[in-house]
């Protein structure tokens, strides 16, 4: 239900930031081969995500948990449960979402995490 309002809020934020350096936030998706829920996310959300306001604020970064973790994410706790989505800004975790239970749940939790990011930016 809060999604349309949140989209307007994020669009306004994106417009305000258009003249400033890009946010260093990203949504890290910890995944692994054979993960059925990762596959479902890829089918239901993946193609659209980069075209959304949320995707512009926090671009998606995929990390395979069975490969070496990138050095810049070394202070982010990696779980064996996939998918796990971690909103990261400047190497610091802002929020975390474990699993994928459908598109509405994903967007709702992502909106909550992005509000934390916005509060941190304003704070």
From TrEMBL:
Keywords: Signal
Record flagged with keyword Signal: yes
Signal peptide residues on this chain, from the entry's feature table: 1-24
Protein name as catalogued: Transcriptional regulator
Provenance organism: Oricola thermophila
